[in-house]
Amino acid sequence: MRWLAYEAVITQVTGDQETQTAEGTQTLQTIEVEITSGDRAGKTLTIQSNTIGDPNAPKFQTGDGVLIEIATGPDGQEQATIIEFIRSTPLYVLFFIFVAVTLLIARRRGLASLAGMAISFLITFQFVIPRILSGADPLLIAILAAAVIIPITFYLSHGLNRKTSAAIVGTLVSLVTTGILAVLFIQAAKLSGYGAEEATSLQQASADTLNIKGLLLAGIVIGLLGIFDDITVSQAAIVYQLKQASPAITFRELYARAMDIGRDHIASLVNTLVLVYAGAALPLLLLFTSGAVPFDQVINYEAVAEEIVRTLVASIGLILAVPITTLLTAFFVSGAPRPVRVSYPPPPPMPAGWRKS
């Protein structure tokens, strides 16, 4: 069986009926759509939408834009199904609001950061994804992409200076350390990478065999890039500000003072990261905790264990990034050559009666 997707608009909805069944409320809609894209543009189809026991199931209305899937069976019979609403318009509006707010508040820095974001997307879609789909090692590709993305985006957003260079070195060292930690614990927990349904669907849709476990590792590495930007640049800036305020400060004291501030940064970032991952996996957590399965059994399910490893590895990487970046930046600043002032003795007095010709 083969299938094709088309954009369409609903022109008429009839037979909006609800009946009670043993499985719950059954809603039946007869929907007429007009295809607006592809080789079938202008063609009209009638589709039956039938939902049972789902109070949150969408109800279609005249004028809604939808994506339909037309499947052709071995006997040549076609069956059309509505698979999604067309949501591109509100998404584009939201993106333009994001760009406008960034430029309005951050101005020139905001423009530079948007350029860095565009480059990151370009590298991801033109290099990372095609190489992974062609069978390359996802972790190696992610590290190579990070080695290109980090310097470009950091220098664009924060300027070409020693502070940014120190943050780049700290980020790369921290990223490699986190990658090694992720490899060790994904192996120890015997994670296959199939904890998410998307991984299974991707493997089935791909013509070649993909390294799904490597894809999990690559996702951890790429997901940390943006967070490392925040923490490493901040720590490097703190060290430089402390050194500028007190040029005579020793290396040991500079590191200690910067780490005192960095510990507050760690506390807020780790809490933020845990909440972000918990929010993203909330439906999954509710699914497992709503039953009678004990916690020590729930964490053995790969879907749960994968999120735990992802969250803890990322948090450890963030914590390590603070002392690594602080140490490297303090070394760069303390080891920077200082200008030497040379004092010359005053010239001897000229003989009496001497005049310059």
Describe this structure in words.
The protein has 357 residues and is α+β, with helices and mostly antiparallel strands. Among the domains are: 2-86, OB fold (Dihydrolipoamide Acetyltransferase, E2P) (Beta Barrel), CATH 2.40.50; 89-228, no CATH class. The chain contains nine helices and five strands, in the order E-E-E-E-E-H-H-H-H-H-H-H-H-H. It has a five-stranded antiparallel beta sheet with strand order 3-2-1-4-5, with no helix packed on it. Helix 1 crosses helix 2 (138-158), helix 2 (138-158) runs antiparallel to helix 3 (162-188) and helix 2 runs parallel beside helix 5. The radius of gyration is 30 Å and the shape is elongated. The termini are far apart.
Element-level helix/strand string: EEEEEHHHHHHHHH
Which class of secondary structure composition applies to the elements?
alpha+beta
Count of discrete alpha- or pi-helical segments spanning 4 or more residues? 9
Mean pLDDT: 79
User: Spans of 5+ residues with little confidence (pLDDT < 50)?
Assistant: 336-344
Total strands: the figure is 5
Query: In whole angstroms, how far apart are the ends?
Result: 104 Å
- State the helical fraction: 55-70%
Assess the beta-strand content as a share of residues: 15-25%
Shape descriptor: elongated
Q: Main sheet?
A: 5 strands, antiparallel
Strand order of the largest sheet: 3-2-1-4-5
Radius of gyration: 30 Å
